TrEMBL record:
Keywords tagged on the record: Membrane, Transmembrane, Transmembrane helix
Species classification: Bacteria, Bacillati, Actinomycetota, Actinomycetes, Streptosporangiales
Organism of derivation: Nonomuraea terrae
The protein's name: PqqD family protein
Domain of life: Bacteria
Positions of transmembrane segments: 105-129, 149-170, 207-230, 236-255, 305-334, 346-367
Length: 396
Protein backbone atom coordinates (compact mmCIF):
# COMPACT_ATOMS: atom_id res chain seq x y z
CA UNK A 1 0.00 0.00 0.00
CA UNK A 2 1.61 3.23 -1.17
CA UNK A 3 0.99 6.67 0.32
CA UNK A 4 1.00 10.09 -1.39
CA UNK A 5 1.35 13.26 0.66
CA UNK A 6 0.34 16.83 0.07
CA UNK A 7 3.34 19.15 -0.39
CA UNK A 8 5.00 19.25 3.03
CA UNK A 9 7.22 21.73 4.86
CA UNK A 10 9.71 20.42 7.42
CA UNK A 11 11.97 21.89 10.11
CA UNK A 12 13.74 20.53 13.18
CA UNK A 13 12.29 21.43 16.58
CA UNK A 14 14.50 20.09 19.37
CA UNK A 15 14.46 16.31 19.29
CA UNK A 16 11.49 16.24 16.92
CA UNK A 17 10.52 17.52 13.50
CA UNK A 18 7.67 19.84 12.58
CA UNK A 19 5.99 18.49 9.45
CA UNK A 20 2.96 19.91 7.72
CA UNK A 21 1.19 21.72 4.94
CA UNK A 22 2.10 25.32 4.29
CA UNK A 23 -1.01 25.72 2.13
CA UNK A 24 -3.46 24.79 4.92
CA UNK A 25 -1.50 25.49 8.11
CA UNK A 26 -1.85 21.91 9.42
CA UNK A 27 1.27 20.67 11.23
CA UNK A 28 2.35 17.83 13.49
CA UNK A 29 5.49 17.01 15.48
CA UNK A 30 7.11 13.65 14.70
CA UNK A 31 10.25 11.91 15.99
CA UNK A 32 13.26 11.17 13.82
CA UNK A 33 11.86 7.75 12.89
CA UNK A 34 8.58 9.36 11.85
CA UNK A 35 10.31 11.77 9.49
CA UNK A 36 12.35 8.91 8.06
CA UNK A 37 9.11 6.97 7.46
CA UNK A 38 7.60 9.95 5.65
CA UNK A 39 10.69 10.32 3.46
CA UNK A 40 10.63 6.64 2.52
CA UNK A 41 6.91 6.77 1.73
CA UNK A 42 7.51 9.85 -0.43
CA UNK A 43 10.16 7.86 -2.31
CA UNK A 44 7.46 5.38 -3.35
CA UNK A 45 7.99 2.56 -0.87
CA UNK A 46 4.85 0.90 0.46
CA UNK A 47 3.89 0.68 4.13
CA UNK A 48 5.25 -2.83 4.70
CA UNK A 49 8.57 -2.02 3.06
CA UNK A 50 8.98 1.13 5.14
CA UNK A 51 8.23 -0.77 8.34
CA UNK A 52 10.87 -3.39 7.52
CA UNK A 53 13.38 -0.74 6.45
CA UNK A 54 13.01 1.22 9.67
CA UNK A 55 13.39 -1.90 11.78
CA UNK A 56 16.57 -2.79 9.91
CA UNK A 57 18.07 0.72 9.96
CA UNK A 58 17.11 2.03 13.40
CA UNK A 59 15.72 -0.90 15.35
CA UNK A 60 12.46 1.05 15.75
CA UNK A 61 9.35 -1.12 15.50
CA UNK A 62 7.05 1.59 14.13
CA UNK A 63 3.49 0.67 13.17
CA UNK A 64 3.60 2.57 9.89
CA UNK A 65 -0.06 1.86 9.07
CA UNK A 66 -1.19 3.53 12.31
CA UNK A 67 1.29 6.33 11.70
CA UNK A 68 -0.18 6.95 8.24
CA UNK A 69 -3.69 6.92 9.73
CA UNK A 70 -2.66 9.61 12.23
CA UNK A 71 -1.12 11.71 9.46
CA UNK A 72 -4.32 11.29 7.45
CA UNK A 73 -6.38 12.63 10.37
CA UNK A 74 -4.00 15.60 10.52
CA UNK A 75 -4.76 16.34 6.86
CA UNK A 76 -1.27 15.64 5.50
CA UNK A 77 -2.05 12.58 3.35
CA UNK A 78 -3.47 13.03 -0.15
CA UNK A 79 -3.88 9.38 -1.24
CA UNK A 80 -3.57 5.90 0.24
CA UNK A 81 -3.34 3.03 -2.19
CA UNK A 82 -4.31 5.36 -5.03
CA UNK A 83 -7.52 6.47 -3.31
CA UNK A 84 -7.98 10.13 -2.31
CA UNK A 85 -8.08 10.84 1.42
CA UNK A 86 -10.44 13.59 2.66
CA UNK A 87 -8.36 16.49 3.96
CA UNK A 88 -8.76 20.21 4.67
CA UNK A 89 -8.72 22.35 1.53
CA UNK A 90 -5.85 24.78 1.05
CA UNK A 91 -6.31 28.16 2.69
CA UNK A 92 -7.80 30.66 0.26
CA UNK A 93 -5.24 33.47 0.31
CA UNK A 94 -6.12 37.14 0.45
CA UNK A 95 -4.74 39.21 -2.42
CA UNK A 96 -3.64 36.09 -4.34
CA UNK A 97 -2.08 38.23 -7.07
CA UNK A 98 0.71 39.12 -4.64
CA UNK A 99 3.44 36.56 -5.33
CA UNK A 100 6.47 35.71 -3.19
CA UNK A 101 8.81 36.87 -5.95
CA UNK A 102 7.22 40.33 -5.77
CA UNK A 103 7.77 40.63 -2.03
CA UNK A 104 11.23 39.26 -1.21
CA UNK A 105 12.20 42.76 -0.06
CA UNK A 106 9.85 42.37 2.92
CA UNK A 107 12.32 39.94 4.52
CA UNK A 108 15.35 42.12 3.83
CA UNK A 109 17.37 43.40 6.82
CA UNK A 110 17.69 46.69 4.92
CA UNK A 111 13.92 47.22 5.19
CA UNK A 112 13.97 46.40 8.89
CA UNK A 113 16.75 48.94 9.42
CA UNK A 114 14.77 51.52 7.45
CA UNK A 115 11.73 50.97 9.68
CA UNK A 116 13.90 51.34 12.77
CA UNK A 117 14.90 54.88 11.72
CA UNK A 118 11.50 56.59 12.26
CA UNK A 119 10.96 54.58 15.45
CA UNK A 120 14.28 55.76 16.90
CA UNK A 121 13.74 59.31 15.61
CA UNK A 122 10.31 59.44 17.21
CA UNK A 123 11.71 58.26 20.54
CA UNK A 124 14.40 60.97 20.41
CA UNK A 125 11.84 63.67 19.57
CA UNK A 126 9.64 62.59 22.48
CA UNK A 127 12.62 62.68 24.82
CA UNK A 128 13.54 66.20 23.65
CA UNK A 129 9.96 67.50 23.73
CA UNK A 130 7.71 65.38 26.00
CA UNK A 131 4.79 67.75 25.38
CA UNK A 132 4.32 66.04 22.00
CA UNK A 133 2.95 63.01 23.85
CA UNK A 134 -0.84 63.39 23.55
CA UNK A 135 -3.24 63.11 26.46
CA UNK A 136 -6.77 61.79 26.25
CA UNK A 137 -8.10 65.24 25.38
CA UNK A 138 -6.52 64.71 21.96
CA UNK A 139 -9.15 62.06 21.31
CA UNK A 140 -11.90 64.71 21.53
CA UNK A 141 -10.34 67.27 19.25
CA UNK A 142 -13.66 68.49 17.80
CA UNK A 143 -16.79 69.81 19.50
CA UNK A 144 -18.86 67.67 17.14
CA UNK A 145 -19.15 64.11 18.43
CA UNK A 146 -19.87 62.67 15.00
CA UNK A 147 -16.71 64.19 13.54
CA UNK A 148 -14.67 62.78 16.44
CA UNK A 149 -16.11 59.28 16.00
CA UNK A 150 -15.74 59.30 12.22
CA UNK A 151 -12.13 60.45 12.48
CA UNK A 152 -11.37 57.81 15.09
CA UNK A 153 -12.97 55.09 12.97
CA UNK A 154 -11.21 56.18 9.78
CA UNK A 155 -7.72 56.35 11.32
CA UNK A 156 -8.25 53.19 13.35
CA UNK A 157 -9.41 50.98 10.48
CA UNK A 158 -6.86 52.44 8.07
CA UNK A 159 -3.99 51.64 10.42
CA UNK A 160 -5.47 48.23 11.23
CA UNK A 161 -5.59 47.48 7.51
CA UNK A 162 -1.95 48.51 7.09
CA UNK A 163 -1.00 46.39 10.10
CA UNK A 164 -2.62 43.27 8.67
CA UNK A 165 -1.24 44.00 5.21
CA UNK A 166 2.24 44.05 6.74
CA UNK A 167 1.66 40.56 8.14
CA UNK A 168 0.33 39.34 4.81
CA UNK A 169 3.23 40.79 2.82
CA UNK A 170 5.86 39.31 5.15
CA UNK A 171 4.14 35.92 5.16
CA UNK A 172 3.68 35.89 1.38
CA UNK A 173 7.36 36.76 0.96
CA UNK A 174 8.07 33.56 2.90
CA UNK A 175 5.81 31.57 0.57
CA UNK A 176 2.86 31.38 2.97
CA UNK A 177 -0.68 31.85 1.52
CA UNK A 178 -1.85 34.15 4.34
CA UNK A 179 -5.50 35.13 4.66
CA UNK A 180 -7.00 38.20 6.34
CA UNK A 181 -10.32 37.99 8.16
CA UNK A 182 -12.25 39.24 11.17
CA UNK A 183 -12.01 37.39 14.47
CA UNK A 184 -12.71 37.79 18.18
CA UNK A 185 -10.44 37.89 21.23
CA UNK A 186 -12.61 37.83 24.34
CA UNK A 187 -14.82 40.95 23.99
CA UNK A 188 -12.78 42.48 21.19
CA UNK A 189 -13.49 42.42 17.46
CA UNK A 190 -10.15 42.11 15.69
CA UNK A 191 -8.76 41.94 12.20
CA UNK A 192 -6.37 39.01 11.85
CA UNK A 193 -4.12 37.37 9.31
CA UNK A 194 -3.73 33.59 9.32
CA UNK A 195 0.00 32.91 8.94
CA UNK A 196 -0.04 29.34 10.30
CA UNK A 197 1.90 28.13 7.29
CA UNK A 198 5.03 29.95 8.50
CA UNK A 199 5.80 27.17 11.01
CA UNK A 200 8.45 25.38 8.90
CA UNK A 201 10.28 28.64 8.11
CA UNK A 202 13.51 29.57 9.94
CA UNK A 203 13.02 31.41 13.24
CA UNK A 204 14.26 34.74 11.83
CA UNK A 205 11.54 34.62 9.17
CA UNK A 206 8.88 33.62 11.70
CA UNK A 207 9.80 36.52 13.98
CA UNK A 208 9.64 38.96 11.05
CA UNK A 209 6.17 37.69 10.13
CA UNK A 210 4.90 37.88 13.72
CA UNK A 211 6.27 41.38 14.40
CA UNK A 212 5.81 43.04 11.01
CA UNK A 213 2.47 44.62 11.91
CA UNK A 214 3.59 46.00 15.27
CA UNK A 215 6.84 47.34 13.82
CA UNK A 216 4.86 49.16 11.11
CA UNK A 217 2.58 50.60 13.81
CA UNK A 218 5.61 51.92 15.69
CA UNK A 219 7.12 53.33 12.49
CA UNK A 220 3.91 55.21 11.65
CA UNK A 221 3.77 56.50 15.20
CA UNK A 222 7.40 57.62 14.93
CA UNK A 223 6.69 59.47 11.68
CA UNK A 224 3.75 61.27 13.32
CA UNK A 225 5.91 62.23 16.32
CA UNK A 226 8.67 63.60 14.08
CA UNK A 227 6.09 65.55 12.07
CA UNK A 228 4.68 67.05 15.28
CA UNK A 229 8.20 67.94 16.40
CA UNK A 230 9.05 69.69 13.12
CA UNK A 231 5.72 71.24 12.13
CA UNK A 232 4.16 71.69 15.54
CA UNK A 233 1.22 69.87 17.15
CA UNK A 234 -1.95 69.22 15.18
CA UNK A 235 -5.12 67.46 16.34
CA UNK A 236 -4.92 64.76 13.66
CA UNK A 237 -1.22 64.12 14.30
CA UNK A 238 -1.91 63.78 18.02
CA UNK A 239 -4.80 61.42 17.27
CA UNK A 240 -2.60 59.20 15.09
CA UNK A 241 0.04 59.02 17.83
CA UNK A 242 -2.55 58.20 20.47
CA UNK A 243 -4.28 55.50 18.41
CA UNK A 244 -1.01 53.84 17.43
CA UNK A 245 0.32 53.80 20.99
CA UNK A 246 -2.93 52.30 22.29
CA UNK A 247 -2.85 49.63 19.59
CA UNK A 248 0.79 48.75 20.29
CA UNK A 249 0.02 48.57 24.02
CA UNK A 250 -2.78 46.14 23.19
CA UNK A 251 -0.23 43.74 21.75
CA UNK A 252 1.15 43.33 25.29
CA UNK A 253 -2.05 41.49 26.29
CA UNK A 254 -0.41 38.15 25.59
CA UNK A 255 -3.11 36.22 27.46
CA UNK A 256 -4.90 36.60 24.12
CA UNK A 257 -3.47 35.59 20.74
CA UNK A 258 -1.79 38.92 19.97
CA UNK A 259 1.31 39.35 17.81
CA UNK A 260 3.53 39.32 20.90
CA UNK A 261 1.81 36.13 22.10
CA UNK A 262 3.01 34.32 18.98
CA UNK A 263 6.50 35.70 19.52
CA UNK A 264 6.39 34.49 23.14
CA UNK A 265 5.17 31.07 22.04
CA UNK A 266 8.00 30.79 19.54
CA UNK A 267 10.72 31.94 21.94
CA UNK A 268 9.57 29.53 24.68
CA UNK A 269 9.57 26.63 22.22
CA UNK A 270 5.90 25.83 22.90
CA UNK A 271 3.66 24.59 20.13
CA UNK A 272 0.26 25.61 21.50
CA UNK A 273 0.88 27.81 24.52
CA UNK A 274 -2.64 29.25 24.56
CA UNK A 275 -4.43 25.91 24.18
CA UNK A 276 -2.19 24.06 26.65
CA UNK A 277 -2.49 26.90 29.17
CA UNK A 278 -6.28 26.91 28.92
CA UNK A 279 -6.40 23.11 29.28
CA UNK A 280 -4.16 23.31 32.35
CA UNK A 281 -6.42 25.91 33.99
CA UNK A 282 -9.51 23.79 33.28
CA UNK A 283 -7.88 20.73 34.84
CA UNK A 284 -6.92 22.69 37.97
CA UNK A 285 -10.44 24.07 38.33
CA UNK A 286 -11.75 20.50 38.21
CA UNK A 287 -9.27 19.43 40.88
CA UNK A 288 -7.24 17.31 38.50
CA UNK A 289 -3.50 17.17 38.00
CA UNK A 290 -1.09 15.70 35.50
CA UNK A 291 -2.58 17.44 32.48
CA UNK A 292 0.92 18.46 31.33
CA UNK A 293 2.36 14.95 31.37
CA UNK A 294 2.08 14.63 27.60
CA UNK A 295 4.14 17.78 27.00
CA UNK A 296 7.92 17.79 26.64
CA UNK A 297 9.62 18.81 29.92
CA UNK A 298 10.92 22.06 28.41
CA UNK A 299 7.35 23.21 27.72
CA UNK A 300 5.79 22.44 31.10
CA UNK A 301 7.24 25.34 33.09
CA UNK A 302 6.34 27.83 30.36
CA UNK A 303 2.77 26.54 30.23
CA UNK A 304 2.38 26.73 34.03
CA UNK A 305 3.57 30.34 34.14
CA UNK A 306 1.51 31.32 31.12
CA UNK A 307 -1.61 29.66 32.54
CA UNK A 308 -1.50 31.99 35.56
CA UNK A 309 -1.13 35.03 33.30
CA UNK A 310 -3.89 33.73 31.04
CA UNK A 311 -6.35 33.14 33.88
CA UNK A 312 -5.72 36.47 35.62
CA UNK A 313 -5.68 38.46 32.39
CA UNK A 314 -8.90 36.89 31.13
CA UNK A 315 -10.76 37.51 34.40
CA UNK A 316 -9.61 41.15 34.57
CA UNK A 317 -10.41 41.75 30.90
CA UNK A 318 -13.93 40.32 31.18
CA UNK A 319 -14.52 42.23 34.42
CA UNK A 320 -13.62 45.49 32.66
CA UNK A 321 -16.04 44.55 29.87
CA UNK A 322 -18.91 43.88 32.28
CA UNK A 323 -18.28 46.77 34.68
CA UNK A 324 -17.08 49.48 32.28
CA UNK A 325 -17.40 48.75 28.57
CA UNK A 326 -20.95 47.39 28.42
CA UNK A 327 -22.48 50.15 30.62
CA UNK A 328 -20.61 52.80 28.63
CA UNK A 329 -21.77 51.39 25.30
CA UNK A 330 -25.37 51.14 26.50
CA UNK A 331 -25.24 54.75 27.69
CA UNK A 332 -23.91 55.92 24.34
CA UNK A 333 -26.57 53.94 22.46
CA UNK A 334 -29.38 55.33 24.64
CA UNK A 335 -28.14 58.89 24.13
CA UNK A 336 -27.83 58.35 20.38
CA UNK A 337 -31.40 57.00 20.23
CA UNK A 338 -32.65 59.94 22.27
CA UNK A 339 -30.86 62.32 19.90
CA UNK A 340 -32.40 60.51 16.94
CA UNK A 341 -35.91 60.81 18.37
CA UNK A 342 -35.39 64.45 19.27
CA UNK A 343 -33.81 65.44 15.94
CA UNK A 344 -35.62 68.28 14.23
CA UNK A 345 -33.94 68.19 10.83
CA UNK A 346 -32.15 65.85 8.44
CA UNK A 347 -28.74 66.87 9.75
CA UNK A 348 -29.70 65.86 13.28
CA UNK A 349 -31.06 62.52 12.09
CA UNK A 350 -27.92 61.83 10.06
CA UNK A 351 -25.71 62.75 13.01
CA UNK A 352 -27.52 60.36 15.35
CA UNK A 353 -27.55 57.54 12.78
CA UNK A 354 -23.80 57.88 12.19
CA UNK A 355 -23.12 57.69 15.92
CA UNK A 356 -25.37 54.64 16.26
CA UNK A 357 -23.71 52.90 13.32
CA UNK A 358 -20.18 53.51 14.63
CA UNK A 359 -21.15 52.15 18.05
CA UNK A 360 -23.44 49.26 17.11
CA UNK A 361 -22.01 47.85 13.86
CA UNK A 362 -18.71 46.62 15.41
CA UNK A 363 -20.68 44.88 18.18
CA UNK A 364 -22.96 43.21 15.65
CA UNK A 365 -19.93 42.08 13.67
CA UNK A 366 -18.38 40.72 16.87
CA UNK A 367 -21.55 38.75 17.62
CA UNK A 368 -21.71 37.36 14.10
CA UNK A 369 -18.03 36.32 14.03
CA UNK A 370 -18.20 34.84 17.53
CA UNK A 371 -21.35 32.84 16.77
CA UNK A 372 -19.94 31.54 13.50
CA UNK A 373 -16.97 30.13 15.39
CA UNK A 374 -18.51 29.06 18.73
CA UNK A 375 -22.25 28.85 18.18
CA UNK A 376 -22.43 25.09 17.78
CA UNK A 377 -20.61 24.58 21.04
CA UNK A 378 -22.73 26.88 23.16
CA UNK A 379 -23.55 25.04 26.37
CA UNK A 380 -27.09 26.44 26.46
CA UNK A 381 -27.97 24.56 23.28
CA UNK A 382 -26.89 21.30 24.87
CA UNK A 383 -28.93 22.13 27.96
CA UNK A 384 -32.05 22.78 25.86
CA UNK A 385 -31.48 19.60 23.89
CA UNK A 386 -31.35 17.71 27.17
CA UNK A 387 -34.69 18.99 28.46
CA UNK A 388 -36.84 19.54 25.37
CA UNK A 389 -38.48 16.48 23.75
CA UNK A 390 -37.15 15.66 20.31
CA UNK A 391 -39.47 15.69 17.35
CA UNK A 392 -40.99 12.27 16.75
CA UNK A 393 -40.20 10.91 20.23
CA UNK A 394 -43.08 8.91 21.80
CA UNK A 395 -44.21 10.02 25.26
CA UNK A 396 -46.46 8.29 27.72
Amino acid sequence: MTVAFHPLGVRRDGDEWIVGRVDSGDFVAVPEEGLRAIRLLQDGMDVEEVEARLLRETGADLDVADFVAALSEAGLVAEVGGRPVPSPPPLRPSLPWLRPRHLRWALSPALHLALAVPIAAGAVCLALRPSIFPDWEAAFWSDTGTVVLLTWAAILWLTIGLHELAHLVAARAAGVPARMSLGTRLQFLVAQTDVSGVWPAPRRVRVVVYLSGTVLDLALCGIAVVWAYVAGPHPLTSLVILIQLVRVAGQLLVFMRTDLYFLLQDLTGCRNLYGDGAAYVRHLLRGRHGSLAALPPRERRSVRVYAVLQAVGTVVCLAVAVLVTVPLMLTLVVRAVQSLLAAEDAAGVADALVVLAIIVVPDLLWARVWWRRHGRRVAAVRWLDRWLPRRGRATG
